[in-house]
Design brief:
about 70 residues; about 75% helix
């Protein structure tokens, strides 16, 4: 029973790979799933908060005294 689901997923991500202009369905899956989660975070917390978290992860945040890290 899993084989039809696997075939469907494989076809889905192959299609997404062409839409996203990436070479492999594996890359398409990573991008697609990541963007889904990113969108959910924006819907829940707002763009500004998610952008602030992203900047913290990128090392672009300021320390408590306002200086650059």
């Amino acid at each position: 029973m899993n084989k039809p689901n696997k075939k469907y997923r494989d076809n889905f991500y192959a299609k997404k790979a062409s839409e996203l202009n990436v070479k492999s369905p594996k890359d398409a899956k990573q991008i697609y799933e990541g963007l889904k989660h990113y969108t959910r975070l924006i819907e829940k917390y707002g763009y500004d908060q998610v952008q602030q978290w992203f900047n913290v992860l990128q090392g672009k945040s300021k320390d408590l005294f306002g200086g650059d890290k």
